[in-house]
Amino acid sequence: MDVRISTDLCDEEKKTTQKRVEVVKRCLRSHGIDYNPENPPRVALLGSGGGQRADVACLGTIRQLGKENLLDSFLYLAGVSGSTWAMASLYDDAQWSKNVPSVVSRALQSMSEGSSSSFSECVQWLRERETQKEICPSPISGVWWWCPTSRVYQ
After folding, report:
1. The whole model's pTM is what?
2. What is the mean pLDDT of each run of 10 residues along the chain (154 residues)?
3. HEC readout, the chain
C-alpha cells in the first residue's frame, strides 16, 4: 500500500468537501442564518474524551442537534476517546444524520445491555471498593462513570 504525502487534499476529498459545503449552505439558509456565500462558515462539531461520560454526552448533543435540524450545519465531526465511541455507533447507519433518534436510542440500548444493576447496588459496590482502598472516586461526577462501569467489574 502506498502512502500519499501532500500539503493539499486529494481531488476526491475536495469534491466531497465541496458537496458538504453545499449541504451546510442549505442548512444555514433554512434557519435564516446570514453568511457570505463565497466563504460560508466551516464549522466542526468536536467531541471530548472522558470515556462513557463523553460517549453519552456526544450522543445527547447529536440527538439535540438533530431535533433542531442543525446537524447539517457542520462540515466536520471529530472527537477523541469516549466521543469516538459515540461516533462509531453512528457510522453503523449510512443515513445516521437522517435517523438520529433511532440511531442514538440503539447506541444507548447497546451501552446498557447486560447492565442490570440498580443504583443502590452500584453505590454499595462503590462503598465496598472505597473501604478496601481499591478505588478513590474523587468528584461526585465520577459516580456517573463508576455506576454503569461497576457492572463490568463485578
Report:
1. 0.69
2. 91 96 97 96 95 88 94 95 90 86 84 63 72 60 53 43
3. CCCCCCCCCCHHHHHHHHHHHHHHHHHHHHCCCCCCCCCCCCCEEEECCCHHHHHHHHHHHHHHHHHCCCHHHCCEEEECCHHHHHHHHHCCCCCHHHCHHHHHHHHHHHHHCCCCCCHHHHHHHHHHHHHCCCCCCCCHHHHHHHHHHHHHHC
